[in-house]
Design a protein that fits this description.
alpha+beta, five-stranded mixed β-sheet
Length: 355
Amino acid sequence: MLCLSVRPVSSYRSSGATSRRAFTLVELLVVIAIIGVLVGLLLPAVQAAREAARRMSCSNNMKQIGLGLHNYASAYRGQFPNAGYPGIGYINDYSPMAKLLPFLEQQNLVELVDFSIQMGHPGKDDLPVELHEAAGKAVPSFLCPSDPEQATHILSMPSGAEVAIAGTNYGMNHGSGMDNVFHPSQAEPDGLCWSNARIRFASILDGTSNTLVFAETIRGPGGSAADLPNNLVTSQLYRSSPSNGISDSILAAADNHDFDTVFADASSWNGQRHAYWLRGCVPDGPLVNGRMGPNSRVPDFSYRSSKINSARSNHTGGAMTTFADGSVHFITDSVDIEVWHALWTRSGREVAGAY
């Protein structure tokens, strides 16, 4: 007689496999916390690496612009590009950046710019239609990758018509600003670029390794505003339009870092800083000034065609500059102001210290 023995299924499981236990809630929370700590440690390192790459790209842009300047000078008997020549009703102010285009591998864009066309007065005349396409073309080597601002903005012209214009983060040295020359076509400043300037390497008596020729700045968000908060964001992005122009009293307040007085005196705020690479003398053109140190807490100024565009950047701790010898330097926010001013003059005979 055949006898079969039957055991419960549970007995097979207990004999053939070990039992498994799931994560407890406490263990799961610990794992999540550890992952969060690791991400928190890793993210700043990733961001720092990305910023280092952007800063290197910015430095390369400025190096290329410096080389373009040297090639321009070689082609024009040592002369530097200026901010324009006398025109009809206004300076025919093709900017130094526009004049450097052939030496920055931008031949296709050069073909869109007819330098013989009169550009007209920015407050009375529309930009000639023949220049509209060129004005709206963004040039990659003119843009710092750390600046999040869009490359183009819309310009409302005197007739009410609108045109796209592209900006630049790099501008040419208009002067130290300590001579109180802020209009690029009314007087000769102590720098390197203004309308009808005929600066050559031989003009730089302070030495090409002691004189900066281009500096980085931040492009504005466009438009204007009647009132803005008194903070660093406003100072970096907007320029004050002083109620009585760029007067001695407002300059004294700026020199003393009295930003409360500067903010209180502003009649409006201009957001078009460096929005227009094509034109040099207009308020939105690419000329920079050394009156205030890099990334100053005091905002820049714009009054008609007079302007103070300071060196500013989104890099931590300073801004990029190109010197007349072609070298690129990162100048820190803590640079001595007297040394800073000396770097902007072509023949001030100053002895520039460490920067």
